[in-house]
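Researcher: Re-running this chain for the archive, since the previous output was lost when a drive failed. Same request as before.
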Amino acid sequence: MPSLTARLLSHPQTPDAYKRATQSPFLQLAGQGRLPPTTLSQWLAQDRLYAQAYARFIGGLLSRVRLPVRSDRPIRETLEWRVVQVLKSSLDGILVELAFFEDTAAKYGLDLAAVVPAEKVVGSSGGGGGSGKEFGPNPTTAAYVDLFDSFGAGGNANKSVFEGLVLLWATEKVYHEAWTYARDQGQASQTKAEDDLDGGALRKEFIPNWTSAEFGAFVDEIEACLDQYAETHSGADVDETALRVWKEVLQLEQGFWPQV
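Model: Regenerated structure tokens:
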């Protein structure tokens, strides 16, 4: 039987949503160096808010893992230990990412508090933070923040570690695939990164970071951990729960890329 993640990736209900989530016009322009710094700033400011909420999400998910008190093997060989290690890597990585955002933004003159015009926000009716007048999360970012915070101390106590692992894998998988698509668009371009509209911020800094072998290996480890967890905690609702989270992430990711 295929693994859980293989079943999700090949599910007949999601191929169109997956393509829209990972192959947007924004990503195409990003890979070709044709995003103006204003547009990049607006998106990056939202991604930074997402990353800050992600850090809280990982902390909340860690608090739900229970390492075994007794085990017939060393604790570092247990699945729970593997989950904690994955979450530790996630937290370490997002802290590095937040510092990377600030350093790169300063280097290229990008604004991490840029406001997105309401007409460029998918799902916006003209109001809400981050679109129009005041800086804050736009509707899609706010939905992500709420989803991440539902795993926190003041969130939904019924949210399971399994559900959180699906969410973690789905977000990282789609992010990696999306920027891999952007990178591939740039490889066909004849222009140099120094001539890009953003001065090379994306093609010299961000895209190499988000398509690196290290990031790919990190996503692969989350996937392997989730698949092992699903095998160990098999039940009638495993696929149903996973598919629900997968669909939600794909829907949010489609709205996360600005209209260009």
